[in-house]
Amino acid sequence: MSTVTHPPAPPEAAQAEAPNRRRWLILAVISIAQLMVVLDATIVNIALPSAQRDLGFSNDSRQWVVTAYSLAFGGLLLLGGRIADLVGRKTTLLVGLTGFAAASALAGAATNFEMLVAGRALQGVFGALLAPTALALLTTTFTDAKERAKAFGVFSAVAGAGGGIGLLLGGLLTEHLNWRWCLYVNLIFAVIALVGGAVLLPRHRRDRSVKIDVPGTVTVTGGLFALVYGCGNAETHGWSSAGTWGFLAVGAVLIALFVWLQTRVAQPLLPLRILSDRNRAASLIAMFISAAGMFSVNLFLTYYLQGILGYSPVKTGLAFLPMIGALIVTATMISNVLVRRVGPRVIVPIGMALAAAGLVWLTSLEATSGYAGHIMPALIVFGVGLGLIMAPAMSNATAGIDAADSGVGSATLNTTQQVGGSIGTALLSSLAASAAASYLEGKDATSKAVQVQSTLESYSTAYWWSAAFFAAGIVICGLLYRRGVPNDDPDAAPVVHM
User: Residue 61: CA atoms inside 13 Å, Cβ hemisphere, count?
Assistant: First the structure.
């Protein structure tokens, strides 16, 4: 009796058939890498006053300590995602971790303003490698639908809570050590993730037939750079400044050119088929709105707690813990159960409504408002809303993407968040400043009480507009998401060919 032999399955196929036995340890490594990237969007904010006094730079210059990071990070995310697909996700993650640690050490050891900004920009460059690679590894590591939902719940909780954790950690390090440790702390995270990644992650073979889309890379990087720079410029120069609308116009033209080029090249940087799925489009919009609206809480509530109520940096960070706890519990436990029963079309709009309600609650804050009765309940409601949005949105934004495109698909989600956060920060800061100026018209601007009230008016305006973002999200996501539960085979890999 003859036997028929079959060639062994390629490594990628074998991995798709059987779940990685070390997948939960891999999730821990991925989460640490993601936490490090997210932390650096906020941890330096609390350290800025100390760094400014130490290095002696001006108020006009200090925004670049934050903007340098977001410019490099937002502008290079899609390229970072494609590099992960081409070079290999394990290699890209390890290089990203090493580079991020080195950049953090450079910024922490800064002896002048220029050295600090250069280190922050390099952090953004290597962050653009880390963020999409971490999400791509999550997508390809968890092949069971139920386990994947749990993994995305943990990951989205880390991503959502990272900003608040950054505020708390930044306060602790600044008060008890010094501002430089807000940057040096990344070395601890990086070493842990680097060792874990080297030991646990399987190697991903490089497809040498695939090439980088150079025209697409140039246009999208230039376009995103111009958009983020233009939005950042609006904070200090206003929306009528040529430096604002000029860069925004250039960014819009370059992005439009990028989209056109993607339909003309054989191997596009961003295959447009990734954007064609309704659930994925709705999820990307949900993450854009969440990032834009979330900044009003992280930014303006921090100003309120420290400037109006006189909280210390540490106490400010502790004040955000209820929101972080609500987000983590909701994202990891409640939302996964509910989404599997009724689908994202119901859950995400409910999350949008709760987030909007929490923001409307914050508009009532006064100079004498108490934490337990006024601030904490609003933060809990807001955190529950974010948890209901982020876990299903992250999962649906990356589900069903071809394994070969998982890096750039993840980068698309990260880019959406980064651009949403940048636009939200600039728009809300501009609206808040206009509200404060309008309140002061015809009043005694030297009066302490008038100044405080004008500040409260500016924060309230930012909260109202943020609530409006989420209200729009209720309608958009309610219309775009498909009815019912996504048709995922519990035993099938989520990364399938489209």
Answer: 13
